[in-house]
Amino acid sequence: MEAQIQQAVEIASGYSNDNSLKQQALEFIQQFKSSTDGWKHCLTILNSATVGSDAISLNLKFFIFQVFDERVPTLSDDEKIVLKDAVYSYLKYIITKGTIEPVFLRNAVAKTLGLLFVHCTLTCYPTIIKDLLGMASQADGNFNALATDYYVKTLVIIHQEIGDQMIIKDKNDIQRSSLLKDRIRDNEMIDMVRSWRQALGHFSSPETVDSSNDIETKALFREIVIGILTAIGFYSSWIEINLILDQEFLSLFYRCLTSDDSKIQIEATNTFINILHKKMPPAKKLELITFLHLGSFLNQMQLDVKNVKFEFAQALARLCRELGIECVQVLEKSSHEELKYDQFRNTCVSKILEIMPLIFKFLENEYDDLSLEVFPFIGAYLLFLERNLVNEDLDFSALDNDQILTSLLNKIILKMRYDDSDDGNDEESIELFNDVRSKLASFQDSIVVINDTLSLDVMIESINTFLFHHLDRGDNKISNWRDIELGLYQLNYYSEMLRNNKMNLPKTMINSSRPYFVFNEMLCKIVDNSTTILVSHPLIQLLFFELIMKHYTFFTNSNIQVEGINKNETLLKVLKIFVSNFGVFSENPKVKFRTWYLFYRFIKLTRPQVDDYVIIELVKSVTTLLDFDFSITANKNNSDLHDVDLTLVEESGSFENQMYLFEAIGILVTLTNDENKGTIVLQGVLQPLFSNLEKCINAIDNINLELLLQAHHSLLLIGTLVKGVEGIRANQLTDKFVGILEQISQVVLITLERFDDYNVVREACSFCLVRLLSLLSKLDTEHSSMLQDISSKYFTITMNGFEKRKMPEVSNFLNFVSQIFHFCGKSEPVYGLLASLLAPLVHKVVAFINQSTENIGDDITKRDVLELQRSFISFLTSVSSDNMDSIWIVNDTNKHALITVINLMLSYSCSYLENDISLVKAALTELIALNNSLGTGQVWHKNDTFKNDNNVFEKADEILVGNSFLVCIELTFKIRDKHVLKDAQFRNGVLLEVTRLMRTISFAGNYVPDANTLRRENAKTKGANEQTNGNDSVSIQNASTCQQMANILISQVGFTPSDAEEFIHRLSQATDRNFTKYMLSLIN
């Protein structure tokens, strides 16, 4: 068995390239570890190495101790003693021979000894620590180095098992750990601390270190010192701290901190940190900090951080950080009475001030990783000052004096500068640096809160230094881009400070305040001196344009003025910078494309009032960027070009970004004073796009994806250009301009007709026509026929190819028709067109929805069907909201369509268990609208321009009113699942609509009073001196529909006549919510 174990371990350790054999070895090892007697075989092997002459490999030894570790908790007391004796024998053998085994193996032995301590001390063997200390101690008072190393390593393991608060333990383990710590405190602690003191003094002394030239021995000495320091730091959290707080220990710690060995130095800092973390009352903690004298000692070291090992510098930074945080926490946690004691408060404050030079030194270090170490202290320090801003009872002026805050803020700002070794082009390093900057900015925020005047002065000085210093001394030398970037960043911070009013200025005074004036002055100074300040670097370019965009109101608000600055000239300079190589013509793609967007936003928001020649020059400049040249780099669609998903197509080029430029040009066209010039500009931009579409139409017989995208992109750019023109003034809608709109519409419609089989082109044409509609709706009656002709052609093409449309396309078409109703429905020709469209559209949409519902196969399709249903109901509702319900009863065909709509809404309303609640609510809303306008069979709203008393919906009582009220009964008194009545969404969404529907039916043909009217009328009714006409309602109920409702309540629900009368009376008097509560009480 022993031979098998050794062989398996060697194979598993990587001495075989046969993966199958290695897997077999691993499986054997796992079975062996889990066996109950495996540890005994390991004992045999270990004994053979100490008693016999058999040599075993290091890997096998390591495996043996792993097996021991797993079995220790399950062994009986007798078996634990057997195991302990075997490990002791092995340890004595190693120590006697003086064999320094590898660190990993010594750690493994210490792990087993530590577990034996945990599981034996309270039951069967209480002297493991004494035994190990006995092996380490020699008769002459010195220490055996190897035995001391095992002793110290075991102590570290013991703490990790019983004292480490980070390890989650069960209740029994916590109880045992508590007992073991008590045992150590009572029986072992004095000897342990003495051994630490003596061993640390011995192995850290120069004499001991220099006594051996053997590298292995020197390394062992170092590990012992590090182990002792680690143990002291660990145990300090739960032993009597005074045992290690004496001058001798402190001298030893200082010796280690100034050692030539950086690893010892690092561990010494960790020991100090652990001691500082000892939980104790504030007063005691201040005594501890005072005793340690760390602040003064670290200052006396006069370390040049740049010349020490980076890891040690980090450790020192952590030590300064923790020392500072502990001092701040003393102030935070002390009682008011303690802090009123001047000596106590001043001592603590002095300890903080003592480490400030060190904190500044680490903060300004070139390495961010080092600076980050002190950030938590800076945050804690500033937070304390913020919390005590209004504390007039206690004097903390020494902590927030101008000198400290000025130095700190200056160093924070300087730390925000890009390092000289960073070129600012690597995205990953920029992201990391921005993380550091955001933390620094939060510190700057705090200082602004603490002392806004000081902060303002420091910021203005830094901005002037980084942006304008070379101007002030007449130096034409180009500045370092890092300085310019930092200056712009600080100016941006300054602007955000004003925007968020961190200085707590009265809101009405912000724009006229001195800080705001200074900001605008500096912004104008940058623009005026752009050629010398604005270095072409992506970070500077983006910062500048983002800053301009944030403060576009400077150019639009006439109340914002800067002395000596002509805002129009500044605006022209900004526009010039935009259309330069610094802006939209930048060679950097990220800058170029972002600037295209910002240029569009700037033009849109400022609508610059400049001379026509300036606009023409702007457009000419930008026009050179409008040629779109793209190629398809990847396509994951199938070969069917009729149904292309553009999200699965990857292409090169700048099409999406160019859309911003096209919209910007459209806006610029509307700003020209000479209508002819604007028209010429528009024609010049459109002509290449028209040519593109002509080529596409001519090449349709050789259709491919690239051709489809060419047509799609051209159409979207036309639509985007038209979108920009939407803000055109009425006096600019000349015949020439209208002619261009007509030309656009004809090109789009011809393209749609030829490419109607291809979804991507259909969608792009729809986008163009929607954009055109907003312009065409502004035309006077002289040109209204054009809108009718375009709409008629679009309706015809769409209706003829309706079955080709996808659900989102149908939704978009319904939205388009809704817009026609809204903008142009009062035009008689358009009304006639819509009247002829309505019935076939309703029938096609209903059939489309029914077919789509039957074919639902996944959640995406289900969502699309729901969205289409909502769009259809929204379309129906828009007919009523635009006061055009007369269109439903203008002819028999439309009346049949109306019946179809009513039945569909009734069906949606009743299917509340199957349908989405939002759909049920929308259907009820449409029934309310129809009952409101057509409940009497005739349109009674005077706002319906085309209402005709001769047009009657004969079946209104039966199909609309009667069925609507029956639906109300089905959703309340006859509801199939009463549990839904407890659902807040159902109550607030559906039941409230049911109440409104019943109220609408009861007031059919009359105005339906709203909640405010009802409250007002009820208040009159309850008045003590009610006049005879004081209870006259603004509107009266419809006797016929109320009787119809009463009959249904009596016959279908079982109401008595008096109950039905009371129900209908309350319906006329109560608000919607109150009546819903009343109705729920009846149901329950």
From TrEMBL:
Molecular-function GO term, any one: tRNA binding
Signal peptide residues on this chain, from the entry's feature table: none
First-listed, main subcellular location of the protein, grouped into a coarse class: cytoplasm
Subcellular compartments: Cytoplasm; Nucleus
Domain (Exportin-T C-terminal): residue spans on this chain: 345-1002
Domain Exportin-1/Importin-beta-like: from-to ranges: 103-263
Transmembrane intervals: none
Record-level GO cellular component terms: cytoplasm; nuclear matrix; nuclear pore
Pfam families, sorted: Exportin-T, Xpo1
Keyword Cytoplasm on entry: yes
Origin superkingdom: Eukaryota
Gene3D superfamilies associated with the record: Leucine-rich Repeat Variant (1.25.10.10)
GO biological process, one term: tRNA re-export from nucleus
Keyword terms, alphabetized: Cytoplasm, Nucleus, RNA-binding, Transport, tRNA-binding
Record-stated family: Belongs to the exportin family.
Biological function: tRNA nucleus export receptor which facilitates tRNA translocation across the nuclear pore complex.
Protein's recorded name: Exportin-T
Natural source organism: Dekkera bruxellensis (Brettanomyces custersii)
Source organism phylogeny: Eukaryota, Fungi, Dikarya, Ascomycota, Saccharomycotina
